Amino acid sequence: MGSSLPPKEANLFKVIVKSYETKQYKKGLKAADAILKKFPEHGETLSMKGLTLNCMDRKSEAYELVRRGLKNDLKSHVCWHVYGLLYRSDREYREAIKCYRNALKIDPDNIEILRDLSLLQVQMRDLTGFVETRQQLLSLKPNHRMNWIGFAVAHHLNSNALKAVDILEAYEGTLEDDYPPENERYEHGEMLLYKISLLEECGLLDRALEEMHRKEAKIVDKLAFKEQMASIVLKLGLFEEGEKIYRSLLFMNSDNYRYFIGLQKCLGLYSEKGVYTSDEIERLDALYKSLREQYSWSSAIKRIPLDFLEGDAFREAADNYVRPLLTKGVPSLFSDLSPLYERNGKAAILEQLFLHLEHSIKSTGCFPGSSKKEPPSTIMWTLFLVSQHYDRRGQYSLALAKIDEAIEHTPTVIDLYSIKGRILENAGDLPAAAALADEARSMDLADRYLNTECVMRMLQADQVGLAEKTAVLFTKDGDQHNNLHDMQCMWYELASGESYFRQGDLGRALKNYLAVEKHYSDMTEDQFDFHSYCLRKMTLRAYVSMLKFQDQLHSHEYFHKAAVGTIRCYIKLHDFPSKSATEEGDEMSQLPPSQRKKMRQKQKKAEARAKKEAEERNEDTTSGTSKSGKRQNSRPVDLDPHGKKLLQVEDPLLEATKYLKLLQSNSANSLETHILSFEVNMRKQKILLAFQAVKHLLKLNENDPDCHRCLIKFFHKVSSLTSPETDSEKLVWNVLVAERPHISQLSGKSLIEANQSFLEKHKDSLMHRAAAAEMLYVLEPDKKLDAIMLIEDSKNTIAMGNDALGPVNIWKRQDCIAVHKLLEDVFKDHGSASRWRAWALRSI
C-alpha cells in the first residue's frame, strides 16, 4: 500500500488512510494533493482521494478519480478494494463483490478485504460464499474469537447447524479452564446459549440438556437460561421438571402468558384451538384458582380463565374480572375482552352481564349483590363499556345512545369522544368521526396518541390537507412533511395514499405508496451494520433471529398494503392514461385566447414559486459544513411533490409486475395477491399466467366472491378469443381445454349455469349475490335489469342471540359501500345506486 512511493510520500499515503479511518477528510485530501503534485498518475493515491471525496458527498468526482486510479494501476489490490467500497456506499453490492474478488486475486490473504467481502455475502445471502470466506479468515487468524464465531454462524445460516456446533466445540477446546475472565463472562455465556439453541434445533435434546447442566455456572443470563431449559425439558417429555421450572418463572413474572402456556403443556392441559373437555376445564379452573391465591396481583391469572370457562362459570369469572376495572376506570377493558366475541355464546353472556351491572349501578349505586357504594365514575365507565359492546355488534344507534349518556354524565373524559368518533366511523359517518376525533385532540394538545387518531380519522374522511397540518404539530421544525417521511411514519403514508387513490390523484397516491416501499428497502440496508457488530458483541441468538426476520420482511402487512396500492395505481394508470403535455397543449389551444393567457400566467407563477421555494430550501439545508468538510443537514429537495413524474411511465403494467413478483414471493397465501396477478396478466394478454392466478385463488378459497369473478371473467375472455393460429397459441389452448374439466365449478356446465349455481349456493350473502349479478351482466349484457334486481332483492339477515342481545345485522358497512360502487362504476346505473345508498343506510 503506497509501496511504489518514496519514503516521504509513502508516509503521506499512510496519513490519507488514517485520516479516512478517523473521518478527517480535509486532512486526508491535503495529503493526497501533496502526493499527486509530484506523482499525478499514482493509482492508489488517486483512488484514496476519490474515496475521501465520496465521504464529502462529491460522488461524481470520486468515481472519476477512482476509475482513473484503477486504470493507472490495475494490479493494485488497494485500487480494487477502494472501487468496491465506493460501490458499497451506493448499495451496489453485486458490483462491490466483483471488485473485492478482483482484489483478492492480487492479494488472496488480505484480512480487510476478506472481512468486507464476507459482510457483503451475508447481506446478499450468498451463504455458500459466506462459508468459504469465513473459513479462509479463520485459517488466516485462528487465534481471533470473532473468526471462530463467524465461521459457526455461517454454517448455521447455510442450514448446517450440526457443523456449527462442532466449530463452537472446537473453539471451546482452545480456551483455558478458567476462561472467561470477568469482563467477558456475558459474551461467553451468550455463545454457550447460542450453542445450546443449535443443539435444540438439531433435535439433540439430551445433549443440549447435558450441556446446560454442565455450563450453568458460566451462563450469566439466568432468565434466558431458565426459558431455554424449560423449552428443552418440555420437548423431552420431562413434565414434572418442566412444571417446576415454569412455576419458578411465574414467580419471576406472573403476567407472562408464555409461562402459563408452558405450565399448561406440562400438565397436559393445553389445546392449540382452545377446545377443552369438561374434565379439562375443571382441572384448568382449579389450577388458576390455586395460582390466584399465590399471585393475587396478576391480571393474567384472572383473564386467562375467561378463554376456557363456559356458561355460568364464565359469567361469574367475567363479573369478578370486570368489576374492579370498572371501579378503577380502565379505558382498555373492552380491548382486553374483545377476543371473547369470537367464541360462541360469550358475546351474549357479556351483554347480559354488562346490562345487569349498568342497571344495578343506576338503581342502587352498587354492583349486584354488593352494599358498597361505587364512585360516580363507575357508571360512566360502564356506559363506556356497553357502548363499545354495541359498536362491536354493529348496533350503532344503541352504541351512540350509550356513549352520549356517558358524555352527558362526565363531559371532560377524552376517551368518550374518541370512542364516539370510532362508532361514527364504523357507522359510515366519516366527516363526523373526524370532527369528534379533532374535538378529543383539542382537549389535550400534548397527547400524541390523540393527535395520531385524529389524523387517521381525517384521512379516512379524505381531509388530507387538514390531516397533514394536524400531523406536523408533533414533528420537528423545518420541512415538516419530510420529517414524517424521515420518521418512517408508514401508517400516515398508507392512509394518505389510500385517500388520494379514492380521490383519483394517482400521482400523490403513488408517491405515498412508494415512500413505504423505500422504508422497507432502508430496513433491508440497515441490517448491514449489524453483521460485524453482533459477531463482535456475541449477541448471536438475536442476530440470527434478526436475519430470519429480514428474510420475511416483505411479507409484513404494511408492505403488502403499499405494494397492493402501487399495483392498483398502475392498473388504473394503464386503463386511464394520464394526459401527455401534447394533449394538454391541444386542450389549451381550444380555449378562448383570454382564458388561455390566464392559464399560462398561472402556470408560470406556480412554476416560479415552486422553483424559488426549492432554492430557498436548498440554501437552508446545505449551508452548514462540518470540520471534516462533509455537508451537514443536507436533504435533497423534492422536485416532484405531487408525483406527476411518477405518472410518466411508458408501461404501467411493467412497473406493476415488479411489485406483483414481490407479493407472489412473500404473500402467496393472500387472495389479494392472486386477484391482482389475474388483473395484471389479463391486461398483458398473458393467458397462462392469468389462469395460474385463477387456480391459486380456487385453491385458497373457491367460495370467495372475487375468486368467482376471476374464474368467470377468465373463461368468458378465453371463449371470445379468435381460433389459435401459431404453435404457442395452440399450446395455450390445449392446456386450457385439458384443465377445464378438472375445475369442479365448471365441470359439465356452461358459464351461465356455473354462475347460477354459485348464486343458489350463496343466495343469503350480499357480496356473493353482488358477484353473481356482476357476472350475469358480463355474460349477458342485455340482462342488466335482472342483474340489478339480484342485488336489490338482497335481504339483511338478522342474527339473533337472545332477548337481551337484540337484532344484529349481518351486512357490514364496507360491503354496502362496495355494492354501491359496483352499481355506479360497473352497471353505471345512478338511480339504483341512489336507491341502494338510501336503503343501506337504513339497513345498517
From TrEMBL:
SMART domains, per the entry: TPR
Entry-linked PROSITE patterns: TPR
TPR repeat coordinates: 77-110
Keyword Repeat in record: yes
Region (Disordered): 580-644
SUPFAM superfamilies assigned: TPR-like (SSF48452)
Top-rank taxon, per record: Eukaryota
Ranges of Basic and acidic residues composition bias in the record: 604-615
GO cellular component: cytoplasm
UniProt keyword annotation of Repeat present: yes
Keyword line: Repeat, TPR repeat
Protein name: N-acetyltransferase domain-containing protein
